[in-house]
Amino acid sequence: MYIGKAKNIKQRVRNHFRTAKRHMLENLYYLDFKLTGTDLLASIIEADEIKKFWPPYNVAQKFPRNTFTLTTYTNQKDELKLAIKRSKSPELSPLFGSQYNTRVYLESWVQEKKLCPRLSGLQFKCLNKKCKCANIKKHNKLLEKVAEEMRNYLPSFCLIDKGRTSQEKSILWINEGKMKGYAYTPELPEMESGTLDGLIEPMKEHPETAAIIGKYLAEYMTSSLQHKQYIAL
């Protein structure tokens, strides 16, 4: 009938009883809840269950969610360029829920591979006189190589956070850029695919959940080695 999330479930239910439409309350006969431990997991579980059960009173979450990925194209000067593209399927990057998070992911590649910011879609003008973009053939060859590497690279990691109680941790598993599922455990297991397969609650990824975890993918690319919450696989 209706699925929602809240940090204060008692206050949220009370507000619904005060503001809900009469016919919604007349059809209400049962309330249930589950603890998630983190707002991230609450958002993911909410989006997943709305997709699964399609409740009649969840309206806003049913609208299509814009997701973005990276792509390449050739302009009129025969320059191969990177660009952010609205899409429902990944191309050179995982799906992100905003252009900002897609740009953060792009910036990490440009910095690591020393790509031209102009031809990567980050600047209108290249200020580096020694940039490889001065030689279009060399630049195109380099970008083709990097684009193939980007296409084949999709990050795999676990996001470790608070659990439902102080005695447990939550694990969100991202495998090759896609959400595989989540788990709660009192002790961290060996972070290997075989171990996680038997531990997690599997979830099917869709644009809404991809958009939610997109910002964590961008953060992982730029800070995973220093961030204690992330464990690379």
Structure characterization notes:
The chain is of the alpha+beta class and 233 residues long. It folds into two domains: 1-63 and 154-233, no CATH class; 68-152, no CATH class. The protein contains seven helices and seven strands; from the N terminus they run αααββααβββαβαβ. The protein has helices at 9-19, 22-26, 39-53, 99-113, 136-152, 193-197, 207-223, and strands at 68-74, 80-86, 157-162, 169-175, 178-185, 201-202, 230-232. The protein has a five-stranded antiparallel β-sheet with strand order 6-5-4-3-7. A hairpin with a 5-residue loop joins strand 1 and strand 2 (80-86). Helix 3 (39-53) runs antiparallel to helix 7. The longest helix has 17 residues, at 136-152.
Detail the topology: elements first, then pairings.
Layout: H1 9-19, H2 22-26, H3 39-53, E1 68-74, E2 80-86, H4 99-113, H5 136-152, E3 157-162, E4 169-175, E5 178-185, H6 193-197, E6 201-202, H7 207-223, E7 230-232
Helix pairs in contact: 3-7, 4-7
